[in-house]
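fwd from M.: "can u put these together and see what the complex looks like"

so here's what she sent:
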Amino acid sequence: MARWRYILITLVCLFALNVASLAQERFPPPEFETDYVRPTTTMPQPEQDIWEYVAAGVLIGALLLAAHLALKRRSRKAIFALMLFSLVAFGFIRKGCVCTVGSVQNVALTAFDPAYAIPIVVLIFFAAPLVVTLFFGRVFCGAVCPLGAIQDAVLIHPVRVPNWLESSLRLLAYVYLGAGVLFAALGAAFIICQYDPFVGFFRLGGNWNILVLGACLLLIGLFVGRPYCRFLCPYGVILRQFSRLSKWRVTITPNDCIKCRLCEDACPFGAIRAPTEPWPGKEYKIAKVRLAFLLLLFPMLVAGGAWGGYLLRDSFARMHPQVRLAERVHLEESGEVEGTTDASDAFRTTGRPSRELYDEAAQIGRRFAIGGAIFGGFVGFIIGGKLLALAVRRRRSDYEADRASCFACGRCYEYCPKEHERLKLGEKAVVART
Amino acid sequence: MGSERNTNRRAMLASVLRCTALGAVAAAGGAAIVKRRRLVAAGVCVGDGTCRDCGVWAECGLPQALTARRGDHARAQ
């Protein structure tokens, strides 16, 4: 009850601050026609580069510490403390920028734009969690990511999401990743940054719609563990695949599983998998037929997705500012709209002929046709792959943390009687290897 | 026996894929650094700050971007 009260007070305070910032924007400042000359505003100097590298160093240190706490020390309290530190350091102090999740877009732009080079610090923020995940699993999500930390901190009454719903909603993250890469690679927009739901909380102000989105996710997060991480995070999608290959991994029990089932409902993220029963003969035959059908369906899904993406090329291209500008200028010149916009006025002052702008927009449109088809094919590939994965049953003899879904938060340790025994005897835990 | 062989095979496959993924991350990182150096050598302005060479920096309303932009403007004056 006390925790409820604390969370509600925090949310109310955050909202009150944002309402104040919104109120400031309600009315435009009046234009006084007097002799008053506005004083020159003095601005602080840009942040020194050294602090960027310090932040990168802190990130690497936090990642290694998280791996130690999750796999070797197996302490939920220590992981929680590190998570709060990360929330303050990378969230409120650094104001959520540089963000590892958004760095995916910088990487995509570097790959496709010959005139763009990714800053070294952003590269470190992108690559360091991937490398650590390849060795220790998703410890970044569990203790270092500020977006995960803010959701984990408000989780008070977790409810179990049915497997079918979890699997379906997870597809959204793949679509979001594909769209984020598509728009970044073609220079249209950094949508992952634009729709970052928690950055407004870290800055105690910002776009009202995004703040509402963040507040909704936090409200859902009171009952559904880390909804953004599980169903939307585009970087989490990459970490899921990397985590499957990790050299060391989180195990619920420090040694042998005694199948006491105490841990069964311990995970608020639905990452604990129960032992499987062998399939009855008749069911096995049906499953084989189903798998064959899905294998045949797979290329059709990819091709259908590619076709759908190609058809959406014009809608995708409108995300690009040059295409929007070309459309606007065309509408103004053909007299379909009255008046001008700042962007169209600025274009006319450059003296460039409209034809040039239209050609440029057409070229961007052609790129979006190819990009849209690849994006659609990717979505089809993911849906097909998901259906195939659901049709295959993996054998498990013990209760295990699913390597792709486990955030290495350490909650399940406390439920294991073998863990309590280990702590009582002061034994060291054996870190499980692949 | 068969199960152990399967486990070993799976572990070996995971190990190969892990090394491949590590190699890919290293190669991509290296390529990004080489590209950055090439652009700098060619005289293309590549600031060291996070925002300076960000793709959306010109329109970004984040505090760091505003600060960096105003800093640039002040220097130009």
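replying to her w this: Chain A touches chain B at residues 43-47, 49, 52, 95, 97-98, 105-107, 109-110, 113, 115-123, 127, 130-131, 134, 184, 187, 189-190, 193, 199, 203, 242, 244-247, 434 (CB under 8 Å).
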